[in-house]
Amino acid sequence: MDILRVEEVDKNYGALEVLKQVSLSVPAGCIFAIIGPNGAGKTTLFKVMTGESPCNAGNVFFQGENVTRAPAHWRARAGMGRTFQVARVFNDFSVLENVVAAIEARRRYQHQPAGRFWAVEPAREVLAEAHQLIADIGLATVISHAARFLSHGDRKRLEFVIALALKPRVLMLDEPTAGMSPADRLGIADLILRIRDQMGVTVVMTEHDMDIVFRLADRIMVLSYGETVACGGVADIKGNPAVQEVYLGKEMNHA
Ligand SMILES: Nc1ncnc2c1ncn2[C@@H]1O[C@H](COP(=O)(O)OP(=O)(O)OP(=O)(O)O)[C@@H](O)[C@H]1O
Ligand SMILES: [Mg+2]
After folding, report:
1. What are the chain's domains?
2. What pTM, to 2 d.p., does this model score?
């Protein structure tokens, strides 16, 4: 089943046509990468999918339901997680406190007992869930550190934990390794694989690092000037002359 589908989406900013008749479908359980040069429209397409920005034409379906007009918070609760906006990190809170706050928020809208974070100790099941998630993502050694003192890689991990605390079906990652060292990038790449394999979360991501894309993605869609240039598996994309044209002067064939 396609967990997420975009059909013939147009998006304009004034006279600027940023997305032109873009369609895609993401099978459940896959890692789907959207790539393309700067300004191609990747982030805009993300915003259309998450509901942060409405499209001018076309439709977005999530788990078979037409969500084109559903607001971002509704889509988040329906299972569209992302590592920005919703997943705000509280800088003065510890890793544990950040994760507890996210789990409590989810439990509150699911009408489960959540405890009252600001006033009393978190509920025991909330704490247990937080410890488990933090350990799974590899943050146990910094669990009591304030978020502002985390390394760039650990901060990104914390954003992942917060997004996962909402128990998403799909996790949307806009450039998850941006600004990271090569070692941190590999760590995040492994983490994305584990999130898909062990937690069963479908991943949609944009990424400029082709090594990471070719390592992770089951399907790749190439955008250029708001239009789809190609969509397929790693081999299709690597061997596609139209894609090589888009990336002229850039190395496509490594990894
Ligand atoms: N809020 C906005 N108002 C007007 N124009 C915008 C807005 N957001 C994006 N754009 C324009 O839309 C085009 C696509 O931008 P977008 O951020 O989606 O590209 P991108 O593929 O994510 O680029 P990058 O790889 O640099 O992140 C660009 O020309 C950009 O200047
Ligand atoms: Mg972008």
Report:
1. 1-79+168-255 (3.40.50.300), 86-167 (3.40.50.300)
2. 0.91
